[in-house]
Automatic annotation (TrEMBL):
It is an enzyme of class 2 (transferase). SUPFAM superfamilies: Acyl-CoA N-acyltransferases (Nat). The keyword Transferase applies. GO terms for molecular function: acyltransferase activity. This is GNAT family N-acetyltransferase. Keywords: Acyltransferase, Transferase. The keyword Acetylation does not apply. Its EC number is 2.3.-.-. Residues 1-163 form the N-acetyltransferase domain. The lineage of its organism: Bacteria, Pseudomonadati, Pseudomonadota, Alphaproteobacteria, Hyphomicrobiales.
Length: 179
């Protein structure tokens, strides 16, 4: 099994996986396709014997402003301050085998190479423990409660710092935005 870059031809498989894995968080095909089109270098497939068993969708974004579920982004903002992990999704048979850790390492390396000093995500479906083991921590952002609630009852905004750079007065780490 290996992670490889996602192509537009993979999007039907991505939709099938998303529908099976994220029953409580459905997303339209256009949403998944837009993520891949806007930032293909941040999208990956996990394949075993030519069968898709997982995917990852990531892109630059603005810290503490997670995109609403099932909404088009329109564009990657020029003011992106974080490398955002939209989704790392694995079928049950692929879990617990180190594949999520491998793609996380790849995403960390990509974020560093792109000049970001942090990655962020919204942990859902009891994934917070995995992300904490990967070095992410929960951050509380005033006014974000209602948006996080739309992700589900256990949703938590998490961040992984990549550099010890200064923070702004509100605690948000600045990024270099070299994507």
């Amino acid at each position: 099994m290996s992670w490889r870059p996602m192509t537009p031809q993979d999007l039907c498989q991505v939709q099938t996986l998303a529908d099976a894995i994220h029953v409580s968080h459905p997303e339209d095909p256009e949403v998944l396709a837009e993520r891949q089109r806007l930032y293909p270098q941040g999208c990956f497939m996990l394949v075993e014997d030519e069968r898709a068993i997982g995917y990852a969708l990531t892109h630059p974004w603005r810290f503490a402003e997670p995109p609403p579920l099932n909404r088009l982004l329109g564009a990657i903002p020029p003011s992106a301050t974080t490398y955002y992990i939209h989704d790392v999704a694995l079928l049950p048979e692929a879990r617990g085998k180190g594949y999520a850790a491998r793609i996380t390492d790849r995403l960390l390396a990509h974020a560093r190479e792109a000049g970001f000093d942090n990655l962020s995500l919204v942990a859902v479906n009891k994934s917070q423990v995995f992300w904490e083991k990967a070095g992410f921590r929960v951050v509380a952002v005033p006014g974000l409660g209602a948006k996080l609630a739309s992700y589900g009852p256990d949703a938590a905004l998490m961040v992984r710092d990549l550099a010890n750079l200064g923070t702004t007065p509100n605690g948000v780490t600045s990024a270099m935005k070299k994507f």
